[in-house]
Amino acid sequence: MSTLTPLRRPVRQDPAERRRALYHLASPVSVLTVDHAGQAHGTTASTVTLVSREPLLIGVALRPGSSFARLAAAEGRFVVNVLDGQQGDLARWFADSSRPDGSAQFDGIPWTADSYAGAPRLAGALAHYTCRLHSSHRAGDGEVLLGYVVRATAVSGPPLFSYAGGLVAGALHPARTTKETSAS
């Protein structure tokens, strides 16, 4: 078990500058879905990451008091739908707090029920991770869910990213190496 060493002196920095710098963390955008007691629910997340390869665990960061976190804990299962670059409207929809509650939020959206979790698997997503809830942790001002990946599927395509406060889509190109750069 690791422990954090408290800072001896507080770090002083303009909070706006820190926030601006954090916008430069690019991350793929996903819609998390759950079905609890016959009611489906979805939410957009831009912080989903691999935590462990053995066992295969992914981590999802959510805001405190998240309805999704509460429903996923009650159900014990959920699905992560990693969005395609053309699914920005879905990301915005599931991030909008004024969307309808329950299954009505999926009206007009093509999906199928996951055979294990029962939660919506959104059509056109680049990847689907079917998860069993491993644990939930309060972390600072957020909540982190760890999901044991029961099944995963993926297709090729350009991903949707959260970057610099917005949604970005496009083809990925391999980074050039130093040798390639100096030869140009």
UniProtKB/TrEMBL annotation:
Report the domain of life of the source organism: Bacteria
Provide the coiled-coil residue spans.
none
Task: Identify the residues that the record assigns to the Flavin reductase like domain, covering every copy.
Answer: 22-169
- Pfam families referenced in this protein's UniProt entry, alphabetically: Flavin_Reduct
Record flagged with keyword 4Fe-4S = no
Instruction: Report keywords, A-Z.
Output: Oxidoreductase
Query: What SMART domains does its record include?
Result: Flavin_Reduct (SM00903)
The keyword Oxidoreductase belongs to this UniProt entry's keyword annotation: yes
Protein name (record): Flavin reductase family protein
Source species of the chain: Streptomyces huasconensis
* Classification lineage: Bacteria, Bacillati, Actinomycetota, Actinomycetes, Kitasatosporales
